[in-house]
Amino acid sequence: MADLIFYTNPQSRGRIIRWMLEEVGQPYETEIIPYDQIKGERYLAVNPMGKVPAIRHKDHVVTECAAICTYLADVFPQANLGPRADEKADYYRWLFYAAGPVEAAVSNQAMGWVPTPERERMFGYGNFDKVVSVLDELLSLRDYVCGDRFTAADVYLGSQIMFPMQFGMLPEKDSFVRYRDRLTSREAYKRATEIDDKAQAEIQPAQQPQPA
Ligand SMILES: N[C@@H](CCC(=O)N[C@@H](CS)C(=O)NCC(=O)O)C(=O)O
């Protein structure tokens, strides 16, 4: 068994971790979890949430995309994707902002669950427009989360911007589009997309109803 196992489905947030793994450049084995097996006993033993992605590294299981990105950057320092001392404040600040407020704001907005102005103080993100303008300001002032250098925080924040934008859940702000162009031109991103597109094409016919 490989030291590093990646549990995923190509039609999922697992694409974030595929990209991260390709950035890290260490060997890993992929286990595709079909959606009709994701709540089965076997996969629940890996992630009791019954959600992908997850990784197993030696004896450790890590779930949650933001945690997996941070973990991989930590345990494979040779990939140079973790923060230098002077980058730590931005790195952690925006990673957690992306995993908490950004994720909640984008999904609630997409569902049409908009807090009333009186209730905004109870929501960690306040309101959707505020989250968008904070991100727009950040990415108008710098190329990457930590300034001028790509880190694991960009894999995660970038994904939290690019994927919603692709589905019309975030506006195509100029700063977001320029950030997306920088990120999608990376060789690791292109490799990851190619691998997952191929895996998706392979499982899709199997999921089609069989002719009677
Ligand atoms: N907070 C989790 C979210 C994981 C998640 O929601 N995964 C979805 C696919 S994108 C899933 O596995 N859904 C299957 C299900 O809930 O049955 C993370 O960041 O990894």
Write the layout of secondary structure elements.
Elements: E1 4-8, H1 14-24, E2 29-32, H2 41-44, E3 54-57, E4 60-63, H3 65-75, H4 88-111, H5 128-141, H6 152-166, H7 174-184, H8 187-207
The chain binds glutathione.
Q: How would you sum up this structure, described in words?
A:
This protein is α+β, with helices and mostly antiparallel strands and 212 residues long. 52% of the residues lie in helices and 8% in strands. Strands 2-1-3-4 form a 4-stranded mixed sheet, covered by helices on one side. A hairpin with a 2-residue loop joins β3 and β4. The N and C termini lie far apart (40 Å). Glutathione binds next to loops.
Summary keywords:
212 residues; alpha+beta; four-stranded mixed sheet; 8% strand; globular; binds glutathione
Spell out the helices and strands N to C: EHEHEEHHHHHH
Give a quick account of the main beta sheet: strands, pairing sense, barrel closure: 4 strands, mixed
Strand neighbour order, sheet with most strands: 2-1-3-4
Bound molecules: glutathione
- Summing up helix and strand content along with how strands pair, one would put the structural category as alpha+beta
Based on DSSP secondary structure assignment, what is the total number of beta strands? 4
Oligomeric assembly: single chain
Count of runs of 4 or more consecutive helical residues: 8
Strand content: 5-15%
Helicity range of the residues? 40-55%
Distance between the termini: 40 Å
Average residue-wise pLDDT = 96
Q: Looking at the structure, what is the overall shape?
A: globular
| Rg result | 18 Å
Poorly predicted ranges (pLDDT <50, ≥5 residues)?
none
